[in-house]
Amino acid sequence: MDDRLHAAPIGALTVSSEGVISDSNETAQELLGGDPSGSPVAESDLRSVEDSLLAALEEPTDEVTFEEYYPELERWLSVTVTPVDGNVTVYLRDVSRRYRARQTVETLRSERRRTAAIDETRSEVVAELVSSPSREEIERTLARELGERDLWSFVWIGERTDGTAGLDVRAVAGETGDTFPAVRETIERPATTPEERAVEQQQIQVVRSIADEDGIPEAVRLAAFSDGVQSMLSVPLTYGAAVHGVVGVYADRVDAFSERERTSFETLGTVAGFAVTAGRNRDLLLSDTVTEVTFEPGADALLVAVAREVDATMALTGTVPHESDALLCYVTPTDGDPDDIAAAASNNPDVGHARVLGDSGTVEIELHRATPLIEVSSLGGTIRRATYEPDDSQIVVEFPPDSDTRRIVTSLTREYDLDVRSKRERERGATTAREFRDGLAERLTERQKTALRTAYFADYFETPRGSTAEEVADLLDITGSTLLYHLRAGQRKLLSAFFDGVGDRGE
After folding, report:
1. What is the dihedral of CA 269, 272, 278, 282, to 10 degrees?
2. What residue spans carry the Polar residues bias annotation (predicted)?
3. pTM of the prediction?
């Protein structure tokens, strides 16, 4: 190799007719990580999947150029093989930056296509919701929109089973191969799969490489390897504290789900969870009959224990679940001291805080313990009333008539210390909008109605406000503080009628 090649800015190798590297310049040595002189090409790091270099050296009659990826070097190289006087000169140029830029563009385009598909699926779910779908229709929409595209290998939808940690298969779409049958068999046995973890933890679970994930059963890993399925994502279908099921998405690429895609899937899971919740609530609201189940909580239930400790009778007036898995419970004593109830609850390690709310007598209790009060909602029920007494407590729940009540009751009684006291089908009298307004009007005082009506038509509740509090007060010839008092009292009754139907609280 002459001095000109030794000083060349591209790599250069001299290869003998026997395929042995006899000389190299400094650039080639930098690319190869050392001086390869004396090594056969077949034993060097210049081996690609196609082995085009070895093929070109076998019959070096014409100059040939190709670009390939060399795994040992972790580089893309442009290689030119030129026969010279019985030897061969091999020119090497690192083109990795160009290939990586191209791959980045292709990756971003693919990610955009997948994200668009997720967004389209979300739109389809919302459209289905508007057309009053059943849960089955929502699940079929998810499976169809995600599984019948060429972006992922297959998709399946699961639902929590009755009282066990397993899942029931609700829908599946795509090229399932041997992988999905292995998944189905696994979820029917006691095992912790990413789908089951997603339901339990209410969080997306990502598996970048199925083959390397010890948390996936071996049977699933082997089947996925055979099918070329390499990564997966499990998305819980949640809304508030309710967990309705899970979507398992399987892909033929390692680390197939970018951060952006995970966020889109998470949003899709929430939208689908909301759609299922809304459908159940609609079924319950529109049904002429409901299934009413009365449960008796066990003696160790927290609110039962509090009632027994202070010898009080309490009525549950509302619950508010938090994303931190805490539940705010609001109870009003019909017999007992609110301060004693708050003090007794505060001494329980599962209570974050307990306090009496002003002069109303209502006690707010932040509960950090698994409770059927949350689970009932996730299973499609609505708590109509709950009372806690030292020796006689009950929770009355309504379910839509088409619910699988037997399965739901089995699930609740297995997971929680509950006994079924009664179960009955009953007709529910329909309340018209006129009847609702008339009933609400009876609860509002004349001053409250006048204040609310004037503020409403004066655009006081708009953003930005069309009138200030002072302007509305001047219209009524009262002070601003008096107006705000009447507005708060009236709004309280409106909210009470909307959220729980609780009667007049004396405002």
Report:
1. -150
2. 19-28
3. 0.56
